[in-house]
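Justification of resources, computational component.

The compute hours requested in this renewal are based largely on the per-chain cost of generating structure records like the one below. Each record pairs the submitted sequence with a full structure-token output. That output is archived, and it is also reused by downstream analysis tasks.
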Amino acid sequence: MLKNFVAFLICLLGALPSTAANRNSSVIAKQAASETTLAAVRRSDAADRDAKGNLKKLAPAEHMRRAAVYLSVRAFEEARAHWQTLIDNYPQDPRVPEAMLGIGRSYFLSKDYQPGYAIFNQIVQNYNGTKESREALNFSAASLLRMGRFAESAARYAEYVDRYPNGERIDTAHLNVIDTLREANKPAEALQWVARTRQRFAGTAAETNAMFAELRLYVAEDRWSDAVNIADQLLKRSFSRAVLTSQAEVAYLKAFSLEKAGRKNEAFNAYLSVPDSIESYYGWLATQRLDDLAGPSRTQIVSQREERVNSAMDSVAELYPAPYRQAILNASKSRKLDPRFILALIRQESVFKPLAKSPAGARGLLQLTMDAAQKYGPGAGLNALRENQLYQPETSITVGAEYIEHLTKLFPQMLEPVAASYNGGEDNVARWLERAGRPDPGVFTAEVGFDETKGYVQKVMSNYRVYKRLYTADLIRK
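The structure output for this chain reads:
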């Protein structure tokens, strides 16, 4: 979800800073300027209200500007107020479809899907032929998906394919039909769409992505021979940036399928072919599976593989610090969390920079948004939090731990879904888990539907592996 939110903000606001990991002093200066802009807009709004407290009529461009400022910090109600005021006062203005799309997206991002769906449908009906209409059709399908109306969602994505064969999202619409049909428990129809997608996008990254969807379907359906065959085809293709998987991920799924098919020796060699390193998530999973499959005659092979990675982790220990130790221990122990997992999240979210701020308005060590802080702050004993308080390390750690505890209760079997939820939302993770069909971390991670979230999970878990190697559960250096 964050990836989509940032992309939407870029459309509205132009070029924005990159991740917190790349921030420098000039970005901090821009951050202060954005906080000043937000405060100025709120002061102006307080002054620009009538006797009933409603926003006064402003120039259309000013309503759009103020809505964009509010959206940048996920202040959805305040953003909607400006979009709606523009619509009410300037019904013929060319920016009305954009304002309506903003309202719909704000509901979507706050997981209030029904009102967003209704607005998306209005745009489709009233502004046919516009870019906003195409976007609204896509988001109406996404809303139906998140409301659990899978067959309707698949039909809506298919409608996009039929109505806009050259639309901006035509390749992802095909792929969404495949995955949504799987969630509708229609695997045969999903495979028909795999064939249709491969034919339409032959020789492109979209065809590779359709083949990857086919592999995941076979794994979920226990069709092990089919999974091995399509994995072998995939491993012969190139893996460009537009491809939604990697050679290591496909190789792991092939090895997993061989193991499930009872072909243990072939599975061992297939796992062994997945290179392991500090940053190789699937290499780590493969090493764990090798431990189970090795047997006395191959123990040394696995031990040597583990020793190489352990030595590499020891050599970069200074890159994995454990600051804020007492605050992390206090927040984690009462909630039965592994403090090393919290460190892994902080390292990925902010690189331990308490003043980090993302383009989506997330702040602090654990990059909390205001809506998350308002939801989980009271449970942590912190009420009426303000934006600037999220830069306080102890506040960020305490509220973040409250949120992480909530996620671990939702997904108690693995940490991968917890990390995925932190980045991509628990409603999406629940669907991906259901689609995976089994509690294997590698199979689940392959099903993660957002490229950014999948990469995030792998980085967080790789961080966690190193922290487990370097620190005790009390965050004492081993």
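The longest helix spans residues 25-47. The mean pLDDT is 92.
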